[in-house]
């Protein structure tokens, strides 16, 4: 099962001389696709130079010598986040959560009114800032993003992740959102057979809390985190279908450069490896094995691509995503997207040729593509 990006159908064509954006059908067999894809092929000179510069150092960029103990790692919020936001730590089902709340400075127009969530351990008062939120804003529906960071299932959130989630928090706050970073247990000491059930227990608890708070929830994540949010959604809805119960669920998922097939059997990975300046095939094979542990790499709890996705359509959960074509994980992400469309699942995807793994997270370095990717994610979340 492989997709050759070079052999895309005619209705996926792109005219770079007339328009940098084009909306395409991801499924040529459907006259009315349910997955709306925005496709781009442009690349800035700065991005091209960056890719050339970092490619020789790919191994160092993704290497991690730290092995974390079993269980959820307690994190120290990075200064890139604490300079912009207030970070509140709490724990639900033995997994640490970090609520990221915009602070109000002289240059900020945002008021902060953070209601205490059940299970929160912080003692910091949640008072509204002077000038507070307008009455009409308080009446807006409450929404929350639970963000699962990537890192090969072995590393917690890094500085780019903290900056990204703090940006989401600041930009989405006026739209009723709170952003929460999830510090899930990491491999190899907490591989999927141990970690995934714990993540599922927390997800169920968070959805119960959301229902009590009348709060809509979006699951979001990049790379390994994108894998987790897709797998959690699928597993939860499969269990609901099996039990004949409609338990509370998230309303949508945002998966940025997700890893969807841990068999690493897609032959297209090897041709794209020549263009990918960050990931190497041996690396993604190794991280997949460490996460799978005793589970088969075809188990849908680690490889969402092998799941029956009808359960998502039946519950009306939207599946959004971002993929860059200079990413060896992109062929499997595209297959997953096409499978979503075949299942008639609603969603929006950004498909950008010549872009690297998790490129929206590099916006803080001033790259145009990073800003555009981040802004696309924000736009979808505002409208979701």
TrEMBL record:
Cite a single Pfam family from the UniProt record. Answer: Abhydrolase_3
Q: Which UniProt keywords apply?
A: Hydrolase
* An example molecular function term from Gene Ontology annotations: hydrolase activity
Q: Where is the active site?
A: 223
Record region (Disordered): 115-135
Pinpoint the Alpha/beta hydrolase fold-3 domain residues.
145-360
Q: Which domain of life is it from?
A: Eukaryota
Q: According to the UniProt entry, which residue ranges have a biased composition of type Low complexity? A: 119-132
Give the record's family classification.
Belongs to the 'GDXG' lipolytic enzyme family.
What is this protein called in UniProt? Alpha/beta-hydrolase
Give the source species. Sphaerulina musiva (strain SO2202) (Poplar stem canker fungus)
């Amino acid at each position: 099962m492989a997709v050759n990006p070079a052999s895309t159908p005619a209705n996926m064509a792109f005219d770079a001389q007339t328009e940098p954006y084009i909306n395409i059908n991801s499924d040529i067999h459907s006259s009315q696709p349910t997955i709306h894809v925005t496709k781009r092929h442009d690349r800035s000179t700065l991005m091209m130079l960056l890719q050339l510069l970092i490619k020789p150092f790919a191994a160092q960029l993704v290497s991690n010598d730290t092995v974390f103990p079993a269980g959820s790692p307690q994190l120290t919020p990075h200064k890139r986040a604490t300079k912009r936001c207030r970070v509140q730590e709490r724990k639900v089902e033995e997994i640490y959560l970090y609520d990221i709340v915009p602070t109000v400075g002289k240059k900020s127009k945002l008021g902060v009114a953070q209601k205490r969530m059940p299970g929160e351990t912080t003692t910091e008062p949640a008072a509204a800032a002077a000038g507070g939120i307008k009455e009409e804003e308080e009446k807006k529906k409450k929404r929350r993003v639970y963000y699962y960071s990537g890192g090969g299932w072995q590393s917690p959130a890094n500085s780019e992740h903290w900056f990204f989630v703090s940006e989401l928090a600041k930009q989405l706050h006026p739209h009723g959102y709170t952003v929460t970073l999830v510090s899930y247990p990491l491999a190899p000491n907490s591989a999927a057979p141990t970690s995934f059930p714990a993540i599922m227990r927390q997800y169920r608890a968070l959805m119960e809390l959301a229902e009590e708070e009348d709060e809509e929830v979006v699951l979001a994540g990049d790379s390994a985190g994108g894998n987790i949010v897709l797998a959690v959604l699928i597993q939860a809805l499969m269990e609901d279908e099996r039990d004949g119960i409609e338990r509370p669920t998230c309303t949508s998922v945002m998966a940025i450069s997700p890893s969807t097939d841990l068999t690493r059997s897609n032959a297209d990975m090897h041709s794209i490896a020549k263009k990918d300046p960050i990931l190497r095939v041996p690396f993604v094979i190794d991280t997949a094995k460490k996460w799978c542990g005793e589970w088969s790499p075809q188990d849908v709890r680690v490889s969402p691509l092998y799941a029956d996705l009808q359960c998502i359509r039946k519950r009306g959960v939207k599946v959004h995503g971002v993929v860059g074509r200079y990413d060896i994980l992109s062929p499997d992400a595209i297959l997953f997207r096409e499978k979503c469309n075949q299942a008639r699942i609603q969603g929006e995807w950004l498909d950008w040729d010549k872009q690297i793994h998790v490129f929206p997270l590099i916006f803080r370095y001033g790259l145009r593509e990073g800003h555009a990717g981040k802004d696309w994610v924000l736009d979808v979340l505002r409208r979701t």
